[in-house]
Structures are given as structure tokens and as C-alpha cells.
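Below is how a single chain appears once it has passed through the pipeline. First comes the sequence as given, then the structure the pipeline wrote out for it. We keep one example in the README because the format questions we get most often are answered faster by looking than by reading.
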Amino acid sequence: MPKLSIIKDILDERGITFKHFCSEIGMSESGLKRIIKHNSTRIQTVETIAKALNIPIGILFGENPLNNSQIETSKKRKDKLPHIPFGAQAGSLSGFSSGVQSNECDYLDSIPSLGAYDFTIDVKGDSMRPEYESGDIVACRMIREVTEVKYGKVYVLDTAQGVVMKQLFESEQNPDSFLCVSQNPLYEPYLLPKEELFCLSRVVGVIKPAKD
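Resulting structure:
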């Protein structure tokens, strides 16, 4: 049986709000509180929680209990995370090669308040205004399968034609494509075939540059 009360301890240690964490795993606050209280849930849900916390799933089953030093290590699990050295085009498809090697990346300090994420990338262009401005930095969590996409959320897409940032929606006319939508109404939506996606990552936070 899982020992889910440790979830709150880990969130407190990392300075992550319960509300923010629930949003990131796609669960209501009342739903997660109920799961923790009754200490039982589906194994798939436990796996999702462990992945979001970046801890071994065994921790949530009381195996190798997380002591204070381990929590601190977990808190600093990724002191440095890669910053992709090209901008997500908040406009049209960028037309440049999307390949990147780890040794080409800068590494920036992770920001615990943003929760779990895999990398950051600069925003360029104005199609995602007003929420995302050119010069912003977005924190992204990589999505392993297209079935994990939550429609209406913003994603950075590594495509055959470059890297873009768009809201994704289901295409009823063409289920083999995503409908890519800009927040700026001056830009028309377009279809992106799923087979042209190398990688997609959900935007989980934004870092605004300091104003003069």
C-alpha cells in the first residue's frame, strides 16, 4: 500500500504549492487530498505523482524512506537544467534545424517554484502575446506520448520545420494532426501532422525579464 502523506512533506520542502502541483498532474486539489487521506489509488496515478516529483516510485510505497538529507537532495535534484540555445518561435514555423546536443546547451539554475520541468527556452515573436512576450523564458516539461497532450494548454513543439510554441487543440476533421492556435488573433490557426513532431513539451511556467 502506498504511503502518500509524504507528498505534502516533499512539496513543503521544495516550496511548491499544493494547488500548483495538482494543476501540473491534472488532478483537482480535493481529489489529491482524498487520495492522500485514504492512502490508496491506482498504480498509474502513483507513477504519475512520482514522475512529477522526480523521485523513485518506491518512496511512495515506504521503500527506502526519504530522510531529511534525501529530501534536501531531492529538492536540489536538478541544480542546473538545460537552456535550449534557440528560441521557440511564437509566430510562424521557424524553418531552422531543431537538432541540439546537450553540450550545446547552457545550464541555468532550476527554479523550485515552477515545479518539475526539463528545460527552458527563449520566446521569440509576438503570436503568443499577451501572455508570452518575445524575450520571456519558458520552462517546459517533455511529453513522452501524444496521448498525454491536454488540449488547450501551451506547448513547445520540435517539428520537422523548426521549433514553435502554440496552444494545441484536437482537430475533428483530421485526427492525425494537431490544431495549432496562437493567442494573438492576428495569426491564423494551422494543422500540424503528428508525424512531423520530433518532440513536444508542455509549458509549465514563464520567467519574465527584469524591467529597467
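Residues 68-78, 92-104 have pLDDT under 50 and may be disordered.

See the next section for the split statistics.
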